[in-house]
Amino acid sequence: MNLRNRDERLAHLKEAIICITSGTLAGLAVYQFFLYFNIAIFGWNLGLIFAPLIAGYVETIIANRILGEDIGAISAFILFAYTTYYSFILKNPTLGMNFITVGSIVVILQAAFPTLINYILIVVGVGVISYIFGFFKRITTYIYHKIKNFNYTYILKKPYEVEEHTVEEFDEEKSNKKINSLDFIFMTSTDVPDKQIVNLGQFYSTVILEKDKHLVHADPEQAEMNTLNTLKSGKDECLIGLTNKIKAAGGNGVLDLDIQYCLIGLGGDSYQVSAIGMGVYLK
């Protein structure tokens, strides 16, 4: 058994070497092509970027066909090391770090770790941009109120009245009666003793609530309470929407109920409340 495993590992290693070698040769050929025809922008040969990219691409294609899996685009790293040594050390040792080098590194990392790099570029990048825009918006709102306060105090000579934003008080008793009157069973568990369960599938309901965009509040505690009341109202609306969907499908309950709260939009300017669960008919 151990001998067979070793033989399989050796065969796998040989196939992997073939894939890496093929990718490396393809990358070298592309780099020589760019060098021979001097394909460059502002003196920087584009082979620095395209050679590692082609190497990793060819290796990945061959590895998927032979091994049925990726092996990390190792040839892209080999080509990056070779092109860096050839261009920046052997041919022109005075060159330092530049946007071409950075571009090559990004391309190689993208070829070797596509999921990670895409997450960083898309999720983290978009998140940072959204946060920056949201922060900028809050700062401009703050500056606007300061300027307006200065105008009222020193130019118009009258008190500056801060606009008050209130939310209707949330009535817990009324909310409980409304939910209980739905004639519907809400359960976070999947275990229902002494009941026959007819599974109707997963159901989903969501509501979007606008977030209070004011940076400064006359009463921070009241503002916090208003936010809490808004989320509670959104939760009720979400549960009612989920109930209506399941009832329309012939159900009378939901199991494994999960309620989620999150910020969405540019700079997190809205709340999203979601209710997810398995719609059922309980006999």
Tell me the span between the first and last alpha carbons: 54 Å
Helices and strands: which structural class? Answer: alpha+beta
Biggest sheet: strands side by side, in what order? 3-5-6-4
Number of domains: 2
Number of strands: 6
As a whole number of angstroms, the C-alpha radius of gyration is 31 Å
Describe this structure as you would to a colleague.
The chain has two domains: 2-112; 172-282, Hypothetical protein apc22750. Chain B (Translation Initiation Factor IF3, 2-Layer Sandwich). The protein has helices spanning 2-36, 47-66, 74-91, 99-112, 114-155, 172-180, 220-248; strands at 40-41, 44-45, 185-186, 197-210, 253-264, 270-282. The strands form two sheets. A four-stranded mixed β-sheet has the order 3-5-6-4, covered by helices on one side. With 283 residues, the chain is α+β, with helices and mostly antiparallel strands. It is flat, with a radius of gyration of 31 Å. Helix content is 59%, strand content 16%. It is built from seven helices and six strands, in the order H-E-E-H-H-H-H-H-E-E-H-E-E. The mean pLDDT is 77.
Strand and helix layout:
Elements: H1 2-36, E1 40-41, E2 44-45, H2 47-66, H3 74-91, H4 99-112, H5 114-155, H6 172-180, E3 185-186, E4 197-210, H7 220-248, E5 253-264, E6 270-282
Parallel strand pairs: 3-5
Antiparallel strand pairs: 1-2, 4-6, 5-6
